[in-house]
Amino acid sequence: MTETTQTTDGAKNPATVRETTDAEFAADVLSPGPPVLVQFTAVWCGPCRQLKPVLAALAAEEADRLRVVEIDVDHNPATTARYGVLATPTLMVFRNGEPVKSLVGARPKRKLREELADVIG
After folding, report:
1. How far is 73 from 52, CA to CA, in rounded Å?
2. pLDDT value of residue 2
3. pLDDT one-digit tens code per residue, 44-96
4. Which residues are known to be catalytic?
5. pLDDT for the residue 15
6. What is the DSSP string of 12-67?
7. Cβ neighbour number for residue 38 with a 10 Å cutoff
């Protein structure tokens, strides 16, 4: 798993959005621990780029209650297909190894936080 650490102003951020792969997905996302928010993304996806600083801020603010991970759909087709992802960005929340919420499209941090309130408490 590699870390992608960038805030809206380009500064490095200690709490990070981690990048995972098909091979690492089970260990990174399905293992026990806090809920995991996964962004299914692609380098060519404009809305995904818009969401990146939102997710970085959320990862920093909720580091003790939520892990944030991204996976590139073009380089990781097995995981993308397994979860039926048809659009980017798709955000999927996993709890105890199971998907419990799915959202499609970019949104501002306030809206995303509202939509995740039942997951992160």
Report:
1. 15
2. 44
3. 999 999 999 999 999 999 999 999 999 999 999 999 999 999 999 999 999 99
4. 45, 48
5. 66
6. --SS-EEEE-TTTHIIIIISSSS-EEEEEE-TT-HHHHHHHHHHHHHHHHTTTT-E
7. 25
